[in-house]
Amino acid sequence: MSRGHEDGPEFDHPTEKCGVVGVSLSDRAAALPTYYALYALQHRGQESAGIVTHDGFQQHQHVGMGLVGDAFDEDDVDSLHGSAGIGHVRYPTAGSVDKSCAQPFSVSFKGGALGLSHNGNLVNADEIRADLAASGHAFTSDGDTEVIAHDLARNLLDSDLVRAVQTTMNRIHGSYSLTIMHDDTVLGVRDPLGNRPLVLGELDDGYILASESAAIDTVGGELVRDVKPGELVVLHEEGTGFDSYQLVEEPNSAHCFFEYVYFARPDSVIDEELVYEVRRELGRELWREAGVESDVVMPVPDSGRAFASGYAEEAQDDGSDIEFAEGLMKNRYVGRTFIMPTQEARERAVRLKLNPIKSTVEDRAVTIIDDSIVRGTTSGQLVDLVREAGASEVHVRIGAPPINAPCYMGIDMATRDELIAADKTTEEIADVIGADSLSYLPLDSVTSAIGKSEADLCTGCVTGEYPFDVEGEASDRDAKRPEVDVPADD
Asked: 486: how many CB neighbours lie within 10 A of its CB?
């Protein structure tokens, strides 16, 4: 079971992945803007945070467990010298939950100093690890990020930076957006299918790479563009510019559609689309597809807010008298690590974090809007909360298709055994959660709202077909993992 759902009241959503940052500046320390950018990406990972910098002579590093504010104090930031740096916030989907897997991962070798931050998940990490181990590489963690770092370090002994990155890209298979620092050169790499987001921004005195544009906004920068799938971007030393190398090209991309639905901050821009407006359009599509007459529509905070706003607006344009209102208030001081030793306590966690506004729902037909249902347990508890507050009807509308398959690309989405939609119809799920009705948004409506074809999106968690060669799973394209010489067992 995912730790996010087991240890904290995460409310039946997929668990965020990771966030990466890379900064190259002219004449000021990179550590503080990197720190601020990580704060802007905190929603993408809460288990650990870290920064690696380089001052032109040596590498400096600090990583710690917990939130950015817990992992760093002022002295930690001040100790990270140099105008080039990379950073990372982590939610583990591969590797242990301890400091050994906290990132950025750094290594010193005869080719220089290397630091690496990774968002995503490789599906052939074990094969490459075995190959590297047979060549004498010693690993200190069980994460796939160290595998990438070791492979790149080996290639840097024989090639220049661009060729070394290209060689590694031709060996690793899966989802990755990387910020890398080789000595004091910062670079960003996006996997050939662009599964994970990565953007480039410009500052007054340099350039920044980050998982989301909101991080660029936070440090006073301007979004330049998305890093393209299969592209390497090398930031010039002292922040004077950048070079671009298109190292791998594929006929189609495989952007994670859940970035638009849930993961990305609503104020981020992905492929020139503001996420908030995409979610409002998803809400409009939800009314068009499955609108139900009720007195009030209300979001599950905060994930359902933009959906519910668009849903209510489209309903009113369609002549409905439905009212948009906040009917659930969130206690923002209940964190992920709230102790829940019993099932009763886990159920109590919902009431600790969300409380219904009785005047909004009493004696009224209510529609609750959210982005997803994973296991269904929390959704049932929310329906119960609203009924107990006096609602006469409770309808549930979800701004995405049913999640019926796991994610192998870096999202903690649970196993098929845990996914309520894996073996139940929509009507059966409605019965389980106690809703008067339940509807999901069809995939073609999602692609319409996002403005991309299904062929350019990763939809494995809702179709069971993946854009990568995942052992035991179907693929939606001609995907084949690279051949790696794995040593035979003795």
From this structure: 14
The Cβ of residue 417 has, within 10 Å, a number of other Cβ atoms equal to: 9
Whole-number Cα distances in Å, 247 to 170, 230, 265: 9, 6, 29
Q: What is the pLDDT of residues 317-345, one digit of tens each?
A: 999 999 999 999 988 887 654 455 565 66
What is the CB-side half-sphere exposure of residue 420 using CA atoms within 13 A? 22
Distance, CA of 225 to CA of 365 (rounded, Å) = 44
CA distance 330 to 198: 30
Query: What's 94-149 look like in SS3?
Result: CCCCCHHHCCCEEEEECCEEEEEEEEEEECCHHHHHHHHHHCCCCCCCCCHHHHHH
Q: Which of 18, 407, 458, 461 is catalytic?
A: 18
DSSP three-state, residue 231: strand
Q: Can 461 be counted among the known catalytic residues?
A: no
178 φ/ψ angles, rounded to the nearest 5 degrees: -125, 140
Instruction: Identify whether 321 is preceded by a cis peptide bond (ω within 30 of 0).
Output: no
Q: What are phi and psi of 48, to 5 degrees?
A: -155, 165
Digit-coded pLDDT (tens) for 336-383: 544 555 656 656 677 788 999 999 999 999 999 999 999 898 899 999
Question: What is the model's pTM?
Answer: 0.92
Give the whole-angstrom CA distance, residue 180 versus residue 52. 10
Distances (CA, A) of 313 to 185, 281, 283, 318: 48, 10, 9, 9
Round to whole Å and give the CA distance between 144 and 118.
Answer: 9
What amino acid occupies position 79? S
β-bridge partners, 22:
86, 209
Could you give the CA distance from residue 175 to residue 468 in angstroms, rounded to a whole number? 8
Least Cα distance to 378 among 418, 407, 349 occurs for: 349
Between CA 283 and CA 228 the distance in angstroms is 28
Q: State the burial class of residue 484 (Cβ atoms within 10 Å of its Cβ: 0-12, 13-18, 19+).
A: middle
Q: Report how many helices (DSSP H) and strands (DSSP E) the chain contains, helices first.
A: 17, 26
Q: What is the percent of the chain with per-residue pLDDT over 90, rounded to a whole number?
A: 80
Closest to 480 (Cα-Cα) out of 54, 43, 174: 174
Give the residue ranges of DSSP H helices in 114-273: 125-134, 144-156, 161-169, 213-218, 257-258
